Amino acid sequence: MGAYILRRLLLVIPTLLGIMIINFALIQFVPGGPIEQIIARMEGGGDVFEGISGGGGEITGGGDSDYIGGRGLPADFIAELEAEFGFDKPPLERFLNMMWNYMRLDFGESYFRSISVFDLVMEKMPVSITLGLWSTLIAYLISIPLGIRKAIRDGTRFDTWTSAAIIVGYAIPGFLFAILLIVLFAGGSYYQIFPLRGLTSNNFEELSLVGKVLDYLWHIILPVTALTISSFATLTLLTKNSFLDEIKKQYVITAKAKGLGERQILYKHVFRNAMLIVISGFPALFVSVFFGGSLIIETLFSLDGLGRLGFEAAVARDYPVVFGTLFAFSLLGLIVGILTDLTYVLIDPRIDFEGRG
């Protein structure tokens, strides 16, 4: 097992490098870089895309520039901007410098916020940890027992009604469910039971330990519920179908013929086989919820997390934030994949990754 883990860790390097190369190459063809953003702001357009569509007035004059809206600006001013952002160097040199800095855990500084990317990510991390970990944990804690129960009672009234509820939950978009929760319970039109902003109250530091825990839970109930609804439905049906497939196999029939109890068959033999497909989806679910799936939820509940950070950085063409977070998130996603393989072995010790070579 140790050799397999070592191989997977070594494979992380070329995989991560490939991800960064592809994204860096794509960025070179995206219009509206950081220099265009600054020019658009100078022109009063607010955003480079408004200038492209005619929303901002273009500076004209005798000068020439390759940048949208940059005609008429002094050449030395454009050159100074290029040097400040590092665009005076060829793309290959910029990429190699960036990767060398990343190897030393230096993710650079945001173009527009005057703060290091590392500090910026650490500042937003508590929100994403809260939404990602709680949503994933609750989804698994509810979905697995419910899916098993539905598989055992397949075709019964319990299975029918729970399936109807699950399908309704799956059909409702997370952001729409979040709006419904806000209207009902956060002062929208009916009750104002839960807060609508932040992870904690203004007097959080003055509370006791129990008060801090309760205040934290009070703030996260609505956003975590809204974020869990769709993944909960998917996982429940996946667990049920996986257990149904295993229950119908020959080894289960043989175990029943030998006189083994239903619970022993279910949790000693069926569980370890059926859970493999459920566990295999954990990395994708975790990474999507942790990094990307919470953008709209964060916006609706006024939470400043990594979802909003990534979106705002992409819109503003804040490349250090975009690439720094992409590097960190990709690395974490690959490591989560390795941990998933270890979970396979924990659930079913018969799995031998070492012998796959």
Automatic annotation (TrEMBL):
Pfam families: BPD_transp_1. The chain crosses the membrane at residues 9-30, 127-148, 160-186, 216-239, 274-301, 321-347. The keyword Transmembrane applies. It is a multi-pass membrane protein. Its main location: membrane. CDD domains: TM_PBP2 (cd06261). It is found in: Cell membrane. InterPro entries: MetI-like (IPR000515), MetI-like_sf (IPR035906). Keywords: Cell membrane, Membrane, Transmembrane, Transmembrane helix, Transport. Residues 125-344 form the ABC transmembrane type-1 domain. Belongs to the binding-protein-dependent transport system permease family. This is Microcin C ABC transporter permease YejB.
